[in-house]
Amino acid sequence: MDTLAKWGTSLIVLINSVFAILGLVFLVCGMLVKVWPEQLANIVKMAGNFENLLPKGSPVHLADINPAAFLNGASTAFIIFGVVLLLVVVWGCCGACCKIRWMLIVYAVILAAIFLGEVSLVILFFTQRNTVCTFFH
């Protein structure tokens, strides 16, 4: 049983490490868009050099895109998502490494709630596709 507990702890820490990196990426990207929107605008302007790759007669002009306005709300969502993901990861790692049972139970409940939310969104998307598509258009 002791070997199983060590492997379980190692597995939780390994999986949480991957999600910690993902959370940090979301957090850093969101913060970069918030702090330096002009750098993002410069990147889009450089991408405007590749406008000839778009189909002929395309109404899209890359130079006309204002990425700061477009990504301002998304950057806030990225920051919130990154912080929440990092909090869940730290909670799980603390529970696993310190062998605190109640923290692991709360961690399992949080993961189950996230999983059930994802499953319900997928079911909603496939059963109510027209409603979901009109919501986003």
TrEMBL record:
Principal cellular location given in the protein's record: membrane
Classification via InterPro entries: Tetraspanin/Peripherin (IPR018499)
Membrane topology: Multi-pass membrane protein
Keyword Membrane attributed: yes
UniProt subcellular location: Membrane
Keyword Endoplasmic reticulum: no
Top-level taxon: Eukaryota
Membrane spanning stretches: 12-33, 69-92, 104-126
Keywords from the named record: Membrane, Transmembrane, Transmembrane helix
Listed GO CC annotations: membrane
Protein's name according to its UniProt entry: Uncharacterized protein
Protein source organism: Potamilus streckersoni
